[in-house]
Amino acid sequence: MPLNTGRSYLAIPGPSVSPDRVLNAMHRTAPNIYEGELVEMTKTIIDDLKRVAMTAQNVAIYITNGHGAWEAANCNMFSRGDRALLAATGRFGFGWAEAARRQGIEIDIIDFGKNGPADPQRIAQALEADKAREIRAVLVTHVDTASSARNDIAAIRAAIDATGHPALLAVDAIASLGCDELRMDDWGIDVLVGASQKGLMVPPGLGFIWFSDKALELSQSADLVTPYWDWKPRGIGAEFWQYFGGTAPTHHLYGLREALTMILDEEGLENVWARHHKLASAVWAAFGAWGQGSAIALNVADTKSRGWSVTSATIPNGGAGALRAWLEAEAGVTLGIGLGMAAPHEPAYADFLRVGHMGHVNAHMVLGVLASMEAGLQALDIPHGTGALEAAARAVWK
To answer: Which residues are within 8 A (CB) of 75 and not within 5 positions of it... i.e. 6 or more apart?
Structure first.
């Protein structure tokens, strides 16, 4: 008898759970898009988007998802034929590179594998070899949503600066914004890419680009930019419609306003970071226990190099796929697939999964997922160590 009747839980790394308050804020008739409440509210949203990214510089809002935000960043940074250096630590690093190549940008990729962070010194060496200073920007994910590897952005910035190379530092923070500690200005980030559907707790549909004054100046000569993707009117437009390239995404804005209030003014950004770290630690502790005497393992071994919003893991011999199927059918819990770890047609594809713990999540939600996973491992006779739930509970409450 399945026990999945009731409210299901989508424990994937985005879309994350949207708070009822956010959904209720969106559940309204469309407002006047020319003046009044919406215009004034948007001013506060722009200010708070800067707060959540820890920047005093510029931000642009797009009606798009993360892939569209990549394209927007590329359009404003590059001209056709320009070069970029990309540090890949998982599938989404390669995804950004593929988008850039299709736009006519030459991409040099340093592949750091799927199980850990980028080495800042190897990035520095690549820049030092660029004697003609052709590389226009270094692209890197903060947390790769597929591998869950987290990069040390401040160290990468320091390595770039040590070479004296003028390249911009562009960071994909789609999986980390509002979850992991992130400080755009303090870390010297020039371009930051984000989206609404993960740590910001709003349904998919909004993409964001934060950009430094240096990046703004460089964008003046970028010939890939088009009217819609141009960040200049969106970031410094004189008229309200310019912020959105046309009609505003009204209902998403109402939801975003509520989410930013919850993050910044009620819980507090540093408390949000701490909550995500604590809940991630519970997931890691459970996997550590399950892995004792078995082949179950976290994808990233070094605790300091794991993102706080998503955990990628392996349960070999098809165990991950079997557990995912059991959880959805029997317990009403959906885990994420193992993106980029193996091709869908390969048998190893079923050996990987991801647990999302981002956004509007708390202890009972994460511990409930882990307890359901423990039940699934037992029901499927998948070899695993004991004491996972006790270890997770200790990680939460210690």
So the answer is: 103, 222, 224, 225, 226, 229, 230
Largest Cα span, the chain: 67
CA atoms within 13 A on the CB side of 53: 32
Q: How far is the first Cα of the chain from the last one, in angstroms, to the nearest whole number? A: 36
Both tokens assigned to 291: 């892995």
Binning the chain into helix, strand and coil, the percentages to the nearest 5 are 45, 15, 40
Fold of 20-265: Aspartate Aminotransferase; domain 2 (3.40.640)
Q: What is the pLDDT of residue 6?
A: 87
pLDDT in tens, 97-131: 999 999 999 999 999 999 999 999 999 999 999 99
- Residue spans of alpha helices (H) in 237-342: 250-260, 269-290, 319-326
Nearest to 323 by CA among 298, 355, 294: 355
d(CA 107, CA 285): 38
Centroid of chain to Cα 308:
10
CATH of 9-16+269-397, one of 3.40.50.1390, 3.40.50.2300, 3.30.2350.10, 3.90.1150.10: 3.90.1150.10
